[in-house]
Amino acid sequence: MVTQSKEVPVLEVRDISKAFSGIDALRSVSIKIYPGQVNAVIGENGAGKSTLMKIISGIYSNYEGEIFLEGEPVRFNRSREAADKGIVIIHQELNLVPELTIAENIFLGQEPVTRFGLINYQEMHAKTKELLDRLDLSLHPATKTNRLRIGQQQLVEIARALLSDSKVLIMDEPTSAISEHEVKLLFRIIKSLKEKGVAVVYISHKLDELFEIADLFTVLRDGEMIGAGKMAEISYDGLIRMMVGRDLKEMRKRGKPVSDEEILRIENLCLKNPSGKESYLVNKVSFTLHKGEVLGICGLMGAGRTELLESIFGLYPKYVTGRVFVGGSERSIRSINEAIRTGLALVPEDRKLQGLILNMNVDENTSLASLDRISKFSFINKKQEENLSRHFIDKLRTRVASSKMEVSKLSGGNQQKVVIAKWLAVNPQVLLLDEPTRGIDIGAKGEIYDLIDELAGQGMGIVVVSSELTEILAIADTILVMSESRQTLNVKRPEATEELLMKAALAEKV
Amino acid sequence: MKVKSISRNLLKFQSVIALLLMCLVMSLLSDRFLTADNAWNVMRQISVNVVISVGMTMVILTGGIDLSVGSVLAICGAITASMLKYGSELPGLNLSVGFSLFGAMVGGTLVGTALGWFNGFTVTRFKVPPFVATLAMLTIARGLTMLWTGGFPITGLGDDMAFIGTGWFLGIPMPVWISAVVVLLAIVVTNKTKLGRYIYAIGGNEKAAELSGVKIKRIKIIVYSVAGALAALGGIIVTSRLDSAQPNAGTGYELDSIAAVVIGGTSLSGGKGTIMGTVQGALIIGILNNGLVLLNVSPFWQQVIKGFVILLAVVIEKFNKREE
Description:
The complex is a heterodimer of chains A (510) and B (324). Chain A is α/β, with parallel strands linked by helices and 510 residues long. Chain A folds into three domains: 1-86 and 168-176 and 194-243, 3-Layer(aba) Sandwich (Rossmann fold), CATH 3.40.50; 257-343 and 429-510, P-loop containing nucleotide triphosphate hydrolases (Rossmann fold); 353-427, no CATH class. Helix content of chain A is 32%, strand content 26%. Chain A has helices spanning 49-56, 79-84, 102-106, 121-134, 150-163, 180-195, 207-213, 236-244, 305-312, 336-342, 351-355, 362-367, 382-395, 412-424, 442-457, 469-475, 498-506, and strands at residues 11-20, 23-33, 38-42, 64-69, 72-74, 87-90, 168-172, 199-203, 216-221, 224-230, 262-272, 280-290, 294-299, 320-326, 329-331, 344-347, 375-376, 379-380, 430-434, 461-465, 478-483, 486-492. Chain A has a six-stranded mixed β-sheet, sandwiched between helices. In chain A, α8 crosses α17 (498-506). Chain A is globular, with a radius of gyration of 26 Å. Chain B has 14 helices and six strands. Chain B has helices spanning 2-12, 14-29, 36-61, 69-86, 101-125, 130-149, 159-166, 174-192, 194-204, 206-211, 216-242, 253-263, 275-294, 299-323, and strands at residues 88-90, 95-97, 154-155, 168-169, 172-173, 244-245. A two-stranded antiparallel ribbon of chain B has the order 1-2. In chain B, strands 3-6 form a two-stranded antiparallel ribbon. Chain B starts with a helix and ends with a helix. The interface between A and B is medium-sized, with 24 and 20 residues.
């Protein structure tokens, strides 16, 4: 491989824009990737990092703007084309076929063959062994990948990327699942790739790691390029400021002050990983929620926020330990039904997969969790059902042509209102909302903020999980930050700043 | 706009229209088709399939399937017949208990319910896919039937028993009465009750239903039990009509039943469909069988034609969906 000058970018992206169903994911982003350097790409959840990488590696072919590889304009239609030109991506999600062996996975789609057209396993295993040795992995190439630990699987992914002589190697959160020892190994390999002149694009939330390995950085925020420069010339706080620094709009009209009457208290809540591994998805979380209080929970994806709500709501009775107090008295919530009876309600993260019966109408979705109240001897009183649904359509200003409409035909915002209506219909004391405004338009967002405000004003306790710091800061009275299954911060709203929250969300084990 | 809405409404009643068309064509081709005798004949012939298919519809609405109905029908028919004919020996007491017709029917139905419950239990407790769980039951129940009967039919069950399958009441055959009552009850359950709503909710989106506090396991077990009970009722009718419990009775009935459900517009992935649709599906199959026999079509061709009708019904259904 020819070692190029480190001054000329090997890959240049100019004015790339991409929208998903009308919502901008990237707006006119330009970045340069230099050979022999580790180029860090940094940003919050949803900043557009993954979208950009998918464009560069040919997974998304429908975008505006231009890409230059070594000065030549290129446009890839499939990831194969990008790989042939030397752009290789290691995905955040694992893409191994579990029933195949390590060697079969590494060579998938490019198996060496004997002259009889059969797969040449000898050669395949020899080359695989070589790659595994470089990664210090003492595994046999014929081991099935479903027998490997997640971290080992991640290393196999990396080995696969090393197989091809790449010019640009994109690593999307490569260390999210591997141990410290493995991280050190990975860094050693990255350094040797650098010496060979490979341009490494490195995406990570772990800023400490970036200061150790990266040479250059580019910061994305809300789909725009905010800044770029040398890692050596920027401070930790400076980076965080670039990642979050935006104007805070006061979205919430603050109603009544929070009462000091406790409505929900969690003490040392732990959730063991239900898939049997000796790890915790929620680790010793405690908080107190008062009547009329809005508690915001933030953190990165996978920090355990959703699992915390689900644990409280009785989804994993066998794996949860810790104490839950509702209205001052201790409750043991062993099922979803018990949670509902205790006065809890959970609006889940994914309204289409978890919230709605898409082929049922608005009435039927609204009443689903509270049919007991509107039926006698198991017969549903349809008049009462309609009234219930009508009441919430008016209260939440849900825009429907008729309450007999299938909910699949409603817009995202109106669908979300139907899910919220279903849970308000059970008359909860505490409402748990998981990403209540994800993927809905600004107008509906505002209405949901108003509703949260109104419900809190009526004395309901509300917990909101959100990836958007601005949202949390706009609606919450108290803010809890989670990182790697633990709570890293619990502050009152007036003491919270975006920088403080971001730092806590990025915090390594405390 | 208006033409469009009319055509859409026509599509909604596709199976009714298909039925009427079939009747029209058959009555033009054969003068024996459109007679009261023949009409009762068709109704009586489909009544067993209707009874079984009501249970099958409920199972399929939850997103499951029940392949064991034919075998469950056979074992329950055999048990009812032997209870009626021989009573039951109480081991060790040297005492034999006789059963009334009603008692024997209850006995048979309870066994069907228990086998259905077992289907539901394996599906919910051990997460066995319904296709596999009920396929296993298909074999198990058939084997039990052979063991129970020793491979020989149980015959000579008396006039009272024969009345259920061959008698008339108020000018209508008994099997038609039975299937009508079953259909009516099922329509009420699916449309008016919580159980019905939960069945549709589970088929529509099991995860969302679970998170809404619907007791998924309990509902599924109830539904498979009902399917087993209805298969047993079908077995009693079949046994009564033939005045004998045949060890190989009901073979292949699960396929006719699934065909009726599918032709009736119920989605195999669950959540969508109606009992009335299934009744229409059973009618279409019944009239087709009847008409082809009247027209002296070879039984081999009958099967080919039936297969194409099933395909046609599903293809039309898909087109309908795209229209929406």
